[in-house]
Amino acid sequence: MIREALLAAVARPRRPYKSSSTPRLWPSGLGRCPRQSMLRVLGVKAEGGFPAQLQIAMELGNRFEDSTFAYLKQVFGTAIRQSVRVKDAYWSGKIDFLLTTDSDTYIVEHKATGDKWFDYEQGLPKDEHVCQACLYRHLYQQQFNVDPKVLLFYRSWSSWAEFALTEEEEGVRCKGQVNDLEVSRWKWVRPTEKRLALEGYLSDGVLPPVPDKPSAEQGCLFRGKPTCSYYSVCFPEGGHHR
Length: 242
Prior knowledge:
The chain is α+β, with helices and mostly antiparallel strands. The chain has a domain at 51-190: Trna Endonuclease, Chain: A, domain 1, CATH 3.40.1350. Helix content is 32%, strand content 24%. It contains six helices and nine strands, in the order αααβββαββββαββα. The strands form two sheets. The protein has a seven-stranded mixed beta sheet with strand order 1-2-3-4-5-6-7, with helices on both faces. The longest helix is centred in the N-terminal third of the chain and has 25 residues, at 52-76. The protein starts with a helix and ends in an 8-residue tail after the last helix.
């Protein structure tokens, strides 16, 4: 009874993309499937919505973020803000937390995740989160002529991780702590390169090519089952692209 009530409370249809004269990409899509980002921007209808269990997880993630912000507000007061909008001709998104001190400005991207697989095989930070956070830095710098520092924070029920990100030519250096353990990790991702590629697709109004086959790495599948709401657009016959 309780589970059904919870599902009924959080389950809601996926909000359709609102078209405008200047449709924009979402920073959260950088580092993920570029085709998915462009299908959304071009107004291609997605099938179904988020699975109910995923919607619960998303709702709990929002609650974790609000909880973290409430605590940070006690420490930093008006120096910290939540959901700060940044945008340009291609992108539009909201920075989770923006902290301004006397000497520096910090962009903080907040992620909630589960305890069981927290930092599985030292997988944190995730590539797509690194790309998203670095893109926020690009956009903020363009918009306000200030080069902020970037922090990526992960929180679960009993674990946490914090990384300071430094974008370099060949990738992103991630230095910080995982549950009080000092770590330094390297991500072989190039946020600027990925950004320019997607902006090129948007400028031309074309879709990136379909992958040769669906994969979990691309975000098409999870445990062998389709998870992307555009799966049938890319693979109308279940596994053969058009």
